[in-house]
Specification:
The chain is α/β, with parallel strands linked by helices. Helix content is 35%, strand content 30%. The longest helix is centred in the last third of the chain and has 17 residues, at 140-156. The termini are far apart. Bound molecules: S-adenosylmethionine. S-adenosylmethionine is lined by residues 26-27, 29, 61-64, 67, 90-91, 107-109, 111, 117.
């Protein structure tokens, strides 16, 4: 996926969404990735043929009210269609039901490299669910170092790192971890 934010597209291309996934993004910021996730869900073959309650949907969580307002404004049409919603909350207090999510995404949210926050988002996953944490930095070593911190936290709480992938993009280096509960 080319475009203005290749670090988002690099992750989304690997997810190959089917259009039915329940997705939560933590630290959605300005809502740029939100728009790409919604596009990927809605572009999946058969999306519109699914009953509304079986269609994939996206929830953006950010502790900043300002970021949530910006995200909701940027993605207002997707909110109106029911594909996207946004909530201002810290990851520890977010109104996400345990076991209700297929994919948790977070780009550039260093706090998720800590055990408590990582444990919280892993608890949201249903069977077969995945947490993807992507850390980027102009310096590949720094992106890798934050990912290594997340990996140590995963080890500490008994989570599984299914994959760790790195790429160097024109916008900087990205290292991403795919995690699941044990
Ligand atoms: C560096 S920005 C990254 C924004 C966007 N994901 C991106 O990659 O451009 C981090 C975002 O995560 C949010 N954030 C950080 N810690 C958080 C937490 N514990 N709970 C919810 N949001 C958090 C911040 O408010 C901020 O909007």
């Amino acid at each position: 996926m080319a475009g203005p934010a290749p670090r988002f597209g690099w992750v989304l291309d690997q997810l190959a969404l089917r259009g039915t996934e329940r997705i939560v993004e933590v630290g959605c910021g300005h809502g740029i990735a939100a728009g790409l996730v919604v596009d990927a869900l809605e572009a999946a073959p058969g999306f519109l043929d699914l009953p509304a309650d079986q269609r994939g949907r996206y929830l953006g969580v950010d502790r900043s009210e300002k970021m949530i307002a910006a995200s909701a404004t940027r993605n207002a049409a997707a909110v109106d269609r029911g594909t996207a919603a946004f909530v201002a909350a810290d990851v520890g207090d977010a109104p996400v039901e345990r076991g209700s999510v297929d994919v948790v995404l977070a780009w550039r949210v260093a706090g998720l490299a800590e055990p408590a926050a990582l444990g919280a988002v892993l608890s949201w996953l249903g069977p077969g669910g995945t947490v993807v944490l992507a850390f980027d930095d102009p310096d590949p070593a720094r992106a890798a170092a934050t990912a290594a911190r997340a990996r140590r936290s995963a080890d500490a709480i008994g989570a599984t790192v299914g994959a760790a992938r790195s790429v160097e993009l024109p916008t900087g280096a990205v290292t991403a971890l795919w995690l699941s509960p044990t």
